[in-house]
Design goal:
- It is a single chain.
- The chain is built from 16 helices and two strands.
- The protein is mostly helical.
- The chain has two domains: 152 residues, Cytochrome c-like domain (Cytochrome Bc1 Complex, Chain D, domain 2, Orthogonal Bundle), CATH 1.10.760; 184 residues, Orthogonal Bundle (Cytochrome Bc1 Complex, Chain D, domain 2), CATH 1.10.760.
- The protein has a two-stranded antiparallel ribbon.
- The longest helix has 22 residues.
- The termini are far apart.
- The N terminus is likely disordered.
- The structure holds heme C (2 copies).
């Protein structure tokens, strides 16, 4: 008798219901916010965000290793179209290994903030940071200016969009390599760039430049970012099977097969008992803000502050939406900058990633610690350990998924891949750029 009873209990846990899950009217209201995929928001701080000519220049720059110090790293090294526009690595590697996983740039045009800690408020200002980051491309804004000037095709294309490229040939005004020293982040104090000590000759060269010359170079550098943004705005996937399923559901077709039965059960769990939608909601399946989900860090290993540091860096960034190089500094176009705020509860918080295309973008989390979606789900299931800084959000409780639930949720997540990016953007430009004047 006893073995039979055990068998019956086990069968109850492991055999999924054969019927599709029923979605209540409350579920349907919530699910209506998940689809269709939204239109790209405007980017008012970048006047050329929607310019096809700028997108072409950005396309060339994205695949251009000439922006890096060793001539071997481009944006596409770490945002490789063949690897879901990430690099497939746990920690990203440019000139050296970084402390973060490279997020995909698929759909980045929809982001409210960029980087895991949200330290950039626009795609164009974001793009300037990897060019100069010593571990990523190790380049600098003067070298970029000289590169544009030396490459006839790039220069004429630049000029067709932004007007005459300033003459950078006079090396007494425009040294070969120069960039400002990094800001010395002291929370609550405004660092003074001129006070930052650095023996790096490129920093010294920058400090020796007149502010008028610095302004000219910064303007060109910002324009490079703006062209890169115009390109990146095209890197979006189309509809996923979820969208078809939700359209069917809203039209009263409960028998839709756009999602398989396991995927449907995964969706029901996602918005049901698992409440993933607390943070992953809306058409991009993200609240576009920051949370501490309590990922532990081994004793002695590095970690950072997450969002608070992101806010401090963003406030000081001369390329933010309220700065000199923005094409609209009005508050109405930068309202998100007005509400920058952090406190004890925001430490250790990272950006909630979009879950669209998540099946293409392994490994996962800001440090790429999870190789598979199943490993991500194990985290939400058990919530082991605690974060090295701040605290895990109290809304989170261990969800204790059984094997069936885990498989269903993973299947649902994999159903979120959209139709591919058009081929012309996935490959480097076929020929050298030619001016379209
Ligand atoms: C060495 C690898 C590497 C290179 C080269 C690189 N990136 Fe990244 N990228 C990363 C990593 C790692 C992050 C996340 C860093 C962080 O959040 O601190 C990132 C973040 C981003 C993001 C933000 C995405 C998001 O969801 O927050 C965008 C957009 C982006 N990169 C675009 C670019 C562009 C454009 C270039 C070329 C100018 C570039 N990247 C060069 C590794 C790289
Ligand atoms: C309290 C908010 C919150 C809840 C609830 C939540 N997430 Fe997340 N999710 C995040 C944040 C924040 C990250 C990034 C954390 C990091 O890298 O430090 C994340 C990361 C992920 C990732 C990795 C994506 C990537 O590109 O790296 C997946 C997959 C994911 N969540 C799925 C889920 C699922 C499934 C659930 C429900 C079981 C869920 N999340 C519940 C906030 C949340």
């Amino acid at each position: 008798m006893l073995p039979l009873l055990l068998f019956a209990l086990q069968a109850e846990v492991t055999t999924p219901p054969a019927r599709p899950p029923h979605f209540t009217s409350d579920d349907l209201r919530l699910l209506a916010t998940f689809s269709p995929p939204p239109d790209l928001p405007d980017s008012p701080t970048n006047a050329v965000a929607n310019s096809p000519l700028a997108a072409e220049l950005g396309h060339a720059l994205f695949f251009d290793t000439g922006l890096s110090a060793n001539g071997r790293v481009s944006c596409a090294t770490c945002h490789d179209p063949k690897k879901g526009w990430g690099d497939g690595r746990t920690l990203s590697q440019g000139l050296s290994i970084l402390e973060k996983n490279a997020p995909t740039i698929l759909g980045a045009g929809h982001n409210r903030w960029h980087f895991w800690d949200g330290r950039a408020d626009s795609l164009w200002s974001q793009a300037l940071q990897p060019i100069e980051h010593p571990d990523e491309m190790g380049g600098n804004r003067l070298a970029v200016a000289h590169h544009l000037q030396a490459d006839e095709a790039l220069r004429s294309h630049y000029e067709a969009i932004f007007g005459l490229l300033p003459d950078f040939t006079d090396r007494t005004h425009y040294p070969e390599n120069a960039l400002p020293p990094p800001v010395n982040l002291v929370f609550g104090f405004l660092p003074d760039e001129t006070q930052t000590e650095s023996s790096d000759p490129r920093h010294i060269a920058w400090k020796k430049m007149t502010s008028a010359d610095q302004l000219i170079v910064n303007t060109v550098f910002a324009n490079v970012g703006k062209a890169l943004e115009a390109f990146e705005r095209n890197i979006q996937t189309g509809e996923a099977r979820l969208d078809q399923f939700l359209t069917d559901l809203q039209e009263g077709n409960e028998k839709s097969l756009a999602l398989s039965l396991p995927e449907q059960r995964g969706l029901a769990l996602f918005v049901g008992r698992a409440a993933c939608n607390l943070c992953h909601f809306g058409p991009r399946l993200t609240d576009r803000e920051f949370h501490n989900i309590g990922l532990g860090v081994e004793e002695g290993k590095n970690f950072d502050d997450g969002r608070p540091a992101g806010i401090e860096i963003l406030r000081l960034d001369p390329f933010n939406g309220r700065g000199l190089f923005s094409d609209s500094t009005q508050w109405k176009d930068n309202i998100k900058l007005r509400y920058l705020f952090y406190d004890y509860h925001t430490y250790g918080a990272y950006k909630t990633p979009s879950l669209r295309d998540v099946g293409r973008t392994a490994p996962y989390m800001h440090d790429g610690r999870f190789a598979t979606l199943e490993e991500v789900l194990d985290h939400y299931s058990e919530l082991p350990g605690g974060p090295p800084i701040g605290h895990r959000e109290e809304t989170m409780i261990p969800l204790r998924f059984n094997a069936q639930e885990k498989a269903d949720l993973a299947a649902f997540l994999r159903s979120l891949n959209g139709t591919p990016v058009p081929k012309r953007w996935r490959t480097p430009p076929a020929e050298k750029l030619r001016t379209k004047r």
